[in-house]
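Note to self: the last two entries modelled the partners one at a time, which told us nothing about the interface. This time every component goes in together.
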Amino acid sequence: MKRILARRALLPTGWAEDVLVTVRDGEIVEVTAGVPSPPAADLTAGIVIPGLTNAHSHAFQRALAGRTEHRSDADRDSFWTWRERMYELTGRLDPASLTAIARQAYAEMLAAGYTSVAEFHYLFRDPAGRDDADAMFEAVRRAAADCGIRLIYVPVLYERAGFDAATPEARQRRFTMDVERFLAHQERAAGSASGRVTVGIGAHSLRAVSESSLRRVAARAAASGAPLHVHIAEQRREVEDCLGATGSRPVRWLLDRFDVGEPWCLVHATHVDEAETRDLAASGAVVCLCPSTEGNLGDGLFPLERFLPAGGRIAIGSDSQVTINPFEELRWLEYGQRLRSESRNVTSVEDPHVGRELFRRVLAGGAQAAGAPRCGLAPGAPADLVVLDGEDPMLAGHGPATLLDALLFSGYRVPIEHVMVHGEWKVTGGRHVDRTRTARDFADALARLGLESP
Amino acid sequence: MKRILARRALLPTGWAEDVLVTVRDGEIVEVTAGVPSPPAADLTAGIVIPGLTNAHSHAFQRALAGRTEHRSDADRDSFWTWRERMYELTGRLDPASLTAIARQAYAEMLAAGYTSVAEFHYLFRDPAGRDDADAMFEAVRRAAADCGIRLIYVPVLYERAGFDAATPEARQRRFTMDVERFLAHQERAAGSASGRVTVGIGAHSLRAVSESSLRRVAARAAASGAPLHVHIAEQRREVEDCLGATGSRPVRWLLDRFDVGEPWCLVHATHVDEAETRDLAASGAVVCLCPSTEGNLGDGLFPLERFLPAGGRIAIGSDSQVTINPFEELRWLEYGQRLRSESRNVTSVEDPHVGRELFRRVLAGGAQAAGAPRCGLAPGAPADLVVLDGEDPMLAGHGPATLLDALLFSGYRVPIEHVMVHGEWKVTGGRHVDRTRTARDFADALARLGLESP
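The predicted structure of the combined assembly is written out below.
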């Protein structure tokens, strides 16, 4: 049992003072606000907030950070030239290097305030093309277990190279599995889930799976209660290809043919028209936005300004790992909307305070994308929390109204002191507890993969 | 004398290894690459880069960070509703609170890798309306001296409320001075310049000064060699007002009537048409871009993609202090261009590597905006430098080609260890040397100003 006494804590009902949080067996068992006199506590904290879910991660892409920001020979760089570089990396990854890279990414996520990660996973074969799905899952699970992040493993089906059902290119074969083997793998993974690991299911994208296979995936999700994740409408070319092949835009196609609702997490959904935006919002599905990756890849801007007032639900993801900082994601999520509309405070739909509203939305949306029934600092929720230095100048003079505005919109060093996952401290004094070994193994893996730059 | 031995250092000719940098009297006196055996050094460093100039700062706005991210009663928030909140603050500032707030902002700039700051200053009167210009300059100078940042003091003329020569509103009277008193103030300030303080000159904006007064300001700049800073074309309304009053767009009006060239620093220039973009690039003036503030205020995106190939020069500024991190500024400067063009690696015009090109450009552009003849790690340049942890996972495996790509485009904690200004260490172990006192005085100033949030 651990007891944390917080000067201020963000509860489901809002900020409270002098809050005692009691934790046992990885769960929060009691939360008492306004405790009259300082009780004995294992930690006296300034400010405590719940940890966030990183709802879309490709952990292995951490190895690419900083390695794709140069012009290629192509006429114009784009998502598609970036993808070539990503394929080069996937052609070399083995379980050991995947563990080392993912562990580095996960340790950085923890230090940045993410306590859960949904790993959108399609590395199912070894470099020679042999089915290696269980070993690759084990590599991800070991990375998460080593550094202590809560893992939602989301294997995603990848069958084909495009809407025309083209045979995958050689480099895409790392990702492919037939639907039977895929479902068997997902079932084995789900069977091995435990306290800090849960298992979802997904499809890489509409271009990569057939309608009939997607029905099998959706049926499994419905039967097992697993969240169902899918990339969608990230790029205009994908929208055009879908229109060409089906006569519908991707989101429209999906909404028309599937019972899209709360278990669904649609990743990006960048290119949606007004009707798609409205209907997607009404569906109850969560849209996972990844502002730094969408900026880095030049995807475009999701119409958040229309989506939220229509009841839309959102989560955030670090996706390509080019930025690992939920507060930078949320800041630039709002700034993208401001730059497009040339106005301010765009996503303050239900709460005048943008920071408070965005944080509340992505906390709930992240839990929904994780298939987690409970979130936040409340009895029965996972003991996943972040301790901030209440004396840091970033937060000086801020009270309940503006604390989250300051946290999201002040682009200084985020004053995270400690991070707890499942009742255990994984970040202390601002650093991941196993930072040195993690960094050394990561550097060794980059060297083995030949990823050192000249 | 101090000697720093760097495993790698970024010299004007590019990255070099085993570099010995010798510093005396605030200047770099010798730089030797490839030193054969480790000599005695005061500091052995992983990676050394030159410090950057923050070319546009309103230090006092640090007190507003996190305090304007909520909807107002206005129909739609914008730059103009934000300005109301900024005016409320300026109505209360006295020299002591200005020093405390500016010192906090400057300490954060140093810890983030800025070693110089151009303070665009128009707080010339006390709250009662009395001329207090010299005391307010002294307040800024003391803040800079206390925390050790190099200061370019840029007093800017503010005469009127708009192009129609309207009398300033009561709240704008803090900023106004007639041109004679302004020039006298600027001259006194310039006369008191010393090692770490230089003095520029400027005009708040075209809407705030008459053409004849701007001629006086430009004549002083030309006669004294001072850089000349002006806000321009940040908002569409300003463009429309200028068109209405003069028949020209702001940048066009300025280019037509003034000898705009290297001494000029045009801040924002967000709303420029193609011909303005081309002619501004050809002028040799530097455009100071402030991506986080422009995002926060919903200003819009500068057409960098056209400006750079036309020979344009750029600097960056933290402006409203909502973000103090040059690497986040540069990252999102490029991302804004990517999001607009839906492509990647947009600002790699002369160098395939975006990070290397942007860093080189803003280093040179910042020095130009500062009126500094020398910059970079070279004999004769100021001893202003940043030491990075070469073993940090952000930089693991990166060599000369991609080190700056990684530094600019990896949104993790920037691994700054130490920062030197004018030959003195002002940041050690990642923290400003006087962090505790600075933070305490800042919090006290916020309380005195009644800026604590409920």
